[in-house]
């Protein structure tokens, strides 16, 4: 039969292989995009938590030396991210900017403002067990009057992040299942068109390893090319976001992007190889009557 009428002409083979690679790459791209979205959502939640602050109010008349000593003690806590000491004079200066230099005239210019320490905890420590222990430790100090914080705000943040995490995890697992299923069906359809070739090779006495080899190699190539295209698309997406929006794509995240890219690539290679092996095994052991269905 001439190439023109062959069912396996170079053009049709190229078209089938291209469709397979494209399908795998788009599935891997969506999976990688979901992974990057989860990472940035997690970073955003951590940043939000670390912007919640506690205000440690000191007793009126506390010396700056004692206050600085307390600041050092607080900074030594593992759960503390940052601190800022505001003296009573600093507080007065800030209020002068807001209310005018003469707003204390009714008090004969007596400074009623307390010195304070603004504390930001690390994101992982923003739960009530850590918070309770921190407040108890700080309020036990002689120069501390009270520790003020927004209990309702912390509760709302933790509750909202927990709900979003559950929904995101379910969505990611669903997408992962869909990705595995789509890649499996794509590989099976590709090998399905070669089922008669597999049976013919068996009839002429070809060894199982000889039958499997070209299909496993093709599956490996499909995974390599699909992962490469997916990573090119992900890199293009990251470049577009970086050029369009500031403060999202940061240099400190490059290592994470590389890990996600490598994970997507390996995921595509492994699945394509494994599903190719499973499909070839299935068609080798298929009954003759089922080959024509």
Topology summary:
Blueprint: H1 10-50, E1 53-58, H2 64-75, E2 80-86, H3 88-99, E3 116-121, H4 128-139, E4 144-148, H5 151-192, H6 195-203, H7 208-244, H8 254-284
Antiparallel strand pairs: 1-3, 1-4, 2-3
Helix pairs in contact: 1-5, 1-7, 1-8, 5-8, 7-8
Total beta strands? 4
**Total of helices:** 8
Number of domains: 2
Mean of residue pLDDT values: 80
Would you write up a description of this structure?
The protein is of the alpha+beta class and 293 residues long. The chain folds into two domains: 3-47 and 158-292, no CATH class; 53-149, Alpha-Beta Plaits (2-Layer Sandwich), CATH 3.30.70.3040. Helix content is 67%, strand content 8%. It has helices at 10-50, 64-75, 88-99, 128-139, 151-192, 195-203, 208-244, 254-284, and strands at residues 53-58, 80-86, 116-121, 144-148. A four-stranded antiparallel beta sheet has the order 2-3-1-4. α1 (10-50) runs antiparallel to α5 and α1 crosses α7 (208-244). Residues 1-8 have low confidence and may be disordered.
Record keyword descriptors for this entry.
293 residues; alpha+beta; Alpha-Beta Plaits; 4-stranded antiparallel β-sheet; 4 strands; elongated
């Amino acid at each position: 039969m001439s190439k023109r009428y062959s069912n396996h002409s170079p053009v049709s083979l190229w078209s089938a292989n291209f469709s397979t690679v494209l399908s795998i790459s788009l599935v891997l791209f969506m999976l990688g995009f979901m992974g990057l979205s989860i990472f940035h959502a997690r970073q955003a939640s951590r940043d939000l938590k670390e912007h919640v602050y506690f205000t440690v109010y000191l007793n009126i008349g506390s010396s700056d030396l004692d206050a600085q000593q307390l600041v050092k003690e607080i900074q030594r806590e593992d759960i503390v991210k940052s601190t800022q000491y505001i003296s009573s004079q600093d507080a007065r200066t800030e209020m002068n900017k807001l209310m005018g230099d003469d707003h204390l005239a009714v008090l004969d210019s007596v400074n009623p403002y307390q010195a304070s320490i603004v504390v930001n905890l690390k994101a992982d420590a923003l739960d009530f067990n850590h918070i309770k222990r921190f407040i108890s430790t700080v309020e036990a100090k002689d120069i501390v009057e009270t520790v003020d914080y927004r209990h309702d705000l912390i509760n709302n943040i933790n509750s909202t992040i927990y709900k979003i995490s559950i929904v995101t995890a379910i969505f990611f697992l669903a997408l992962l299942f869909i990705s595995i299923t789509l890649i499996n069906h794509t590989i099976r359809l590709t090998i399905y068109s070669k089922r008669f070739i597999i049976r013919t090779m068996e009839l002429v006495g070809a060894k199982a390893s000889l039958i499997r080899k070209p299909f496993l190699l093709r599956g490996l190539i499909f995974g390599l090319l699909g992962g490469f295209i997916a990573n090119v698309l992900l890199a293009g997406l990251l470049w577009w976001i970086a050029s369009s929006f500031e403060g999202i794509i940061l240099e400190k995240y490059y290592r994470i992007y590389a890990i996600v890219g490598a994970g997507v690539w390996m995921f595509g290679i492994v699945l394509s190889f494994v599903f190719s092996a499973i499909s070839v095994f299935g068609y080798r052991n298929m009954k003759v009557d089922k080959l024509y269905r």
